[in-house]
Amino acid sequence: MALLFRNLRVHQIFGANTDVGKTILTSGLVRASAAKKIRVFYLKPVSTGPLQDADDEHVKRYAGLHGDLVNAHCLYRFDEPVSPHLAANMAADRRGTGNVVVPTDEAFTTSIASYIRKCASGLTERAHMYVETAGGVHSPTLSGTTQLDSYRPLFLPTVLVGDSRLGGISSTISAYESLLLRGYSVESIVLFKDEYYRNWEYLESYFAEHGVRVTAVAPPPPREADPSQDFIATEDYYRKIASDDGGAGGLVGVIEYLDSKHDGRIKELETMPRRTLDTVWWPFVQHGLVKHEGDVNVIDSAWGDHFTVFTGHRPSIPPSAVEPSSLLESQFDSSASWWTQALGHAHPALALAAARAAGRYGHVMYPQATHAPALRLAERLVNDGPGKGWASRAFISDNGSTGMEIALKMALRVASKRFGFTPQEQKKVGVLGLKGSYHGDTIGAMDACEEGVYTCEWHDAKGYWFEPPSVGINNGRAFVDVPSAVAHTKKKIEGEPLSWIYDVGARLDTLLATAYRQHIDSTLEKLAKGGAPPFGALVLEPLVLGAGGMVFVDPLFQRLLIDAARARGLPVVFDEVFAGLWRLGLHSAGPLLGAHPDVSVHAKVLTGGLVPLAVTLATEALLHGHSYTAYAVGCEVANETLDRLERLASGDAWNSARAAWQAGGGEEANDGTKENRAAVWSLWSPQFVDMLSRLDIIDRVMTLGTVLAFKVADNHAGYQSHSAQALLKTLGDAASESGRDVTSAPGGGPFSIHFRTLGDVAYFMTSLNTPSTTIRAVEDRVWAVLGR
């Protein structure tokens, strides 16, 4: 959780390297703040070495005439003067691992955040705080994680202490770029004014182009052998650099500049809602209903599964909900930012992958060319990914809607040649699909859907859409909801376990399969006899209709639609933009359905949500123009994402979730269904899903992989309903679930939940690596609201 307070200006001090004078310059900043009669807090999260040499003790010793205004503190102290990770492990080994536990990164950042909040509590006047790190930016913390990554959830504005020694220009710039790659805001650089190497002269001009202020400070005097003389000399040094008469080489100007940056940040955040309302069109928002600045969600940063949002523009928040002086709060991103997040926000490995490709290629045109990121991505998706066993080509574009346009062009051109459509028929050719389908907002993708909330005035629906049977859980029992068009009267078939419903192969010879076949065949025959325009493809969102209301379609019906299309020679297109690449716990829907497509489209999870990218897989390609085809940055990020997803797929977290669903479902195995049974699982707990399904206010609940969706029992107004939004509105309040302390948010503070609804349907979605502790915390919050 990023921290921002009106009356406490907090800055984190990073060093470009070890032994660059970080503690000396931080002590000077502390003293300069105190000299202006400002209360100042100094925090050294980790200290190694003897107590008399500890940095917090040094700060206290040289606090100056106004030392009573200085509070210096250390959270973790170790005796050995070595790197923090080694000191912690040595202490654990010396005392026995049962007595000393090395804190996790989450515990470490939570302790820092808790201390900062404690210092901020009750302040009525401006105060300053400096959080000094240990070593260089990549030095490890207690767990072994580098400081850059360990401190990142706190997102504190940064002062970088530059290196004034030989080679210091390079180390300072390298440290600065490493901070930028992780999103840090570097507001000032301070270093010693070494008159021989004169690094500050080069760095001043270099960073002026980047809008970063550089301040050079006189170096400290040589250390005296006599402790009393050394104290006098050091005290005189601090007095000079930390007072107004320090001139251009003093630190008073630095603290005034940092104050102005702090005030400017708050002003920027406060004005963003009004400026946004005046200048921005949002997607999928009824702008007439958003009239107040308090309705604008101002996202200051994001990390992992959480946004950090500004609250200073909202109506007063009850003191019990969040610290009264805090201007930021954590907010769980419960839609995975419209289904894109695979590894959480601002994942450093993905940011580095993007930088790696941007630095090597930028964007290069692709016709009759190749480059390593695109070729590697195409080969892995075709040969070992969702295209394994059927695809031979990959066309790489920039987003799911464009990818679907390409897929439709491929499929319809194949059908046109296969069936010999006349030019007039080619203009009228349509698709088969399911009611509630959504394939994107470009014109061609819209025309492949039935008229609905996502279409526009010049929408020209081309095709026929079957009403799909759906799957759900109610009162602890899985069921298939069969529409009246299939069963003549609407029918709910229940009693079979969820794993049986998704065992498509075992259901092909059932009475329901026979009913489905008869319905599909008779419908297509009637359409043909009735003079309907020709069909050129079957277009499906496998397993779940996302934007159409998170409808979990009976997979047996989709399989039989595929069989019927194939029997008639129609190409089959899978729109796996949302559902593919493990979003539903499956690499691809093909193996579960027992049928592969002729064309499939993948996006969203593909790049972990960092950059737009889409891949259309097919048995053959076609001529299609696209300026950002095989965008090298996106391809490199996609490869990095897929590398990490492959490790997740066989890791302990997913295996534990799979085991929970197999053990918690109370299901009896059917012969030959073991493989399919193992494929049906969720990161959401089976006990929680069962509890939700038994509530009177819930019509049905369903989950697969990262997705949890439930339909509110109301008047079935669908998209016109506000029932889901109204039911869950208090999730937007920052409060600990069930009155307990919350440690699942970065920094361990209270968190709200940012959620989206689809009329009478509410859905929640995690990243693919969301910790189970976070998911359990969200479950508790949702239950606390619904259980009322």
Automatic annotation (TrEMBL):
Q: Just give the chief location class.
A: mitochondrion
Q: Record keywords: Transferase included?
A: yes
Metal-binding among keywords = no
SUPFAM superfamilies from the entry? P-loop containing nucleoside triphosphate hydrolases, PLP-dependent transferases
| Pfam families attached to this UniProt entry | AAA_26 (PF13500), Aminotran_3 (PF00202)
Q: Which UniProt keywords apply?
A: Aminotransferase, Transferase
Name used for this protein in its record: PLP-dependent transferase
